[in-house]
């Protein structure tokens, strides 16, 4: 028996024999064409792009019917890239000027795009390299007439093992007998992960060497709750996980009944459970899971089509999300991006340490026109319903005041143009740096609300890159320094009468729920899919119990002690849940 630890991107338990999918790699040799063939190659390119777009549109429509709008939006990004005029001009130029074959020109340009994505440090965008690879393969298949892997003819349930999956391959899984997925590569924010979550079957990624260590026919357990893949389990382990699988299915059915019930403790304290979203249409999923609003709208996803969105495009996206929440509040975070994320720029000097470099609010303040375009779009859209705006990665009062001044400038622009906008919009900040945490008492005098972004705060406090599997064990919300920092921030906000919430991944992990509400948080924002389980736990707890748990956790001096204690206390309330 072998146990491997990865990153769980879709919960549940799957048990089945493995099928190992070989990676599909299309290597195109350099080939020159005579001048008389240029027109024919351009025609071939145009046809291949047209067929690729048509295929994607059909696939998008099928996925929308089966999995909903948020999953289908993945293919809108692919279509946007294929239709991008700049990208097409680059391919055409290589055919016309260097007389490359259409296939080699396409491969050259798409590989350049992949290198650009490899330089990106934000995991939300860096993982899009797999989508670029998928687009390249689709175009080349349509140029060369090649065909890809097909899992449609499976006759029994299997666990699919692969080095990686393209977005297109993942979308086809819902029509197959694949019960679970285990991948060497990938992270929680990739398009593949988004589709796997929408698909609703267990998946673990980031397993590094699994595909080389597993043979077809090996029995596999995919544990999408505890981030594990177990190869050839013994009889005792197999029996245990068979029971867990059946129990998880029952619990999932039970959680659906909580949708309309409040997230209130047994002694009457209500906690607001909000959704983190990337795409406007995800509000449908948020409402379906019982969200009280959107606590984090990651607006940088508007840049994933490869071009900087103009004011009208941004306005329409924000308005769609605000109207879709039907009167519930929506908090829009301004672009959390850096110079290396703007794919329309032609030359980029990679920063030596981008996570500590020119990113987020810093970048926005150095590109004021771009920043004002976004702020004007948010202010206009805010007339459609309750809306708040918050700034990411704030480290100093000067930055915060400059950002607030830029909002006033955007308001003046709209007023002069006679365009309706929300004048009294609430302005807040994400607290995700040790500097902001230590100076929280000063910041709360300047904002209407604070949202704690634990994803970055933890990595900065613990000097552990959250995207680096080699130091993953050092990145933990259970570290006593993290717990004490949260206590200080929450207390400072409460003393100032400023609303405080938490929107990092920590909010959606059940073992931290008692700690967070016990420390004083009354608003948590998370992936919509986590809301039902967190609501169930809150409804089983009392505030007195949560406060006792928080006090005890603050006395522990190692992350292992904190984790074990929180898990033990959570299991007392939900003994049957896979925590």
Describe the protein:
The chain is an alpha/beta fold and 579 residues long. It has three domains: 2-24 and 149-235, 3-Layer(bba) Sandwich (Glucose Oxidase, domain 1), CATH 3.50.30; 35-144, PtsI, HPr-binding domain (Enzyme I, Chain A, domain 2); 261-342 and 355-573, TIM Barrel (Alpha-Beta Barrel), CATH 3.20.20.60. Helix content is 47%, strand content 13%. It contains 23 helices and 16 strands. It has helices at 38-67, 69-82, 85-97, 102-118, 123-126, 129-144, 167-171, 191-199, 210-213, 235-255, 283-288, 311-324, 361-366, 368-381, 397-417, 434-438, 440-443, 454-462, 480-496, 513-519, 531-540, 543-553, 559-573; strands at residues 2-5, 7-10, 13-21, 158-162, 178-183, 203-205, 219-223, 228-231, 272-277, 294-298, 330-333, 387-391, 426-431, 449-452, 499-502, 523-526. The strands form two sheets. Strands 1-8-7-3-4-5-6-2 form an eight-stranded mixed beta sheet. Strands 15-14-13-12-11-10-9-16 form an eight-stranded parallel beta sheet. Helix 3 crosses helix 4 (102-118) and helix 12 runs parallel beside helix 14 (368-381). The longest helix has 30 residues, at 38-67. It starts with a strand and ends in a 6-residue tail after the last helix. Mean pLDDT is 86; it is low at 339-349.
């Amino acid at each position: 028996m072998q146990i491997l630890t990865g990153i769980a991107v879709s919960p549940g338990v799957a048990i089945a024999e493995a099928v190992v999918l070989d990676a599909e790699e299309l290597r195109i040799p350099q080939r020159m064409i005579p001048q008389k063939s240029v027109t024919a190659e351009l025609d071939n390119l145009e046809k291949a792009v047209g067929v690729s777009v048509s295929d994607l549109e059909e696939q998008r429509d099928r996925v929308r019917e089966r999995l909903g709008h948020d999953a289908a939006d993945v293919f809108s990004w692919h279509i946007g890239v294929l239709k991008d005029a700049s990208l097409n001009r680059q391919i055409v130029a290589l055919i016309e000027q260097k007389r490359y074959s259409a296939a080699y020109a396409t491969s050259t340009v798409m590989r350049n795009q992949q290198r650009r994505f490899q330089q990106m440090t934000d995991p939300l965008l860096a993982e899009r390299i797999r989508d670029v690879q998928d687009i390249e393969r689709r175009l080349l298949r349509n140029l060369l007439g090649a065909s890809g892997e097909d899992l449609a003819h499976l006759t029994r349930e299997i666990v699919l093992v692969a080095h990686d999956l393209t977005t297109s391959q993942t979308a086809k899984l819902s029509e197959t007998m694949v019960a679970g997925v285990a991948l060497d590569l990938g992270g929680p924010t990739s398009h593949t992960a988004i589709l796997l979550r929408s698909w609703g079957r267990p998946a673990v990624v980031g397993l590094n060497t699994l595909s080389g260590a597993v043979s077809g026919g090996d029995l596999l357990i995919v544990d999408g709750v505890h981030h594990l893949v177990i190869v050839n389990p013994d009889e005792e382990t197999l029996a245990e996980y068979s029971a867990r699988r059946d129990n998880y299915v029952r619990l999932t059915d039970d959680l659906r009944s909580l949708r309309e019930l409040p997230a209130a403790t047994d002694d009457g304290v209500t906690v607001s459970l909000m959704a983190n979203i990337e795409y406007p249409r995800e509000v449908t999923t948020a409402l379906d899971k019982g969200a009280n609003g959107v606590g984090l709208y990651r607006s940088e996803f508007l840049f994933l089509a490869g071009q900087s969105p103009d004011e009208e495009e941004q306005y329409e996206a924000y308005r769609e999300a605000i109207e879709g929440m039907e009167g519930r509040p929506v908090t829009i975070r301004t672009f959390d991006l850096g110079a290396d994320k703007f794919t329309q720029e032609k030359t980029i000097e990679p920063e030596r340490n981008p996570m500590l470099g020119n990113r987020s609010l810093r970048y926005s303040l150095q590109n004021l026109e771009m920043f004002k375009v976004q702020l004007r779009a948010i202010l206009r859209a805010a007339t459609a319903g309750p809306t708040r705006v918050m700034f990411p990665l704030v480290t100093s009062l000067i930055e915060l005041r400059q950002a607030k001044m830029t909002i006033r400038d955007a308001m003046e622009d709209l007023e002069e143009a006679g365009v309706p906008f929300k004048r009294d919009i609430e302005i807040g900040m994400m607290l995700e740096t040790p500097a902001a945490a230590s100076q929280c008492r000063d910041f709360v005098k300047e904002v209407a609300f604070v949202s704690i972004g634990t994803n970055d705060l933890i990595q900065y406090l613990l000097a552990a890159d959250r995207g680096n599997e080699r130091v993953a064990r050092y990145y933990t919300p259970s570290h006593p320094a993290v717990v004490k920092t949260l206590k200080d921030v929450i207390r400072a906000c409460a003393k100032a009468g400023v609303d405080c919430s938490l929107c990092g991944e920590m909010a959606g992990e059940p073992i931290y729920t008692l700690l967070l509400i016990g420390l004083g948080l009354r608003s948590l924002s998370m992936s919509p899919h986590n809301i039902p389980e967190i609501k169930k736990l809150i409804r089983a707890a009392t505030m007195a119990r949560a406060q006792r748990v928080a006090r005890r956790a603050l006395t522990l001096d190692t992350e292992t002690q904190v984790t074990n204690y929180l898990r033990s206390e959570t299991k007392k309330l939900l003994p049957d849940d896979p925590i």
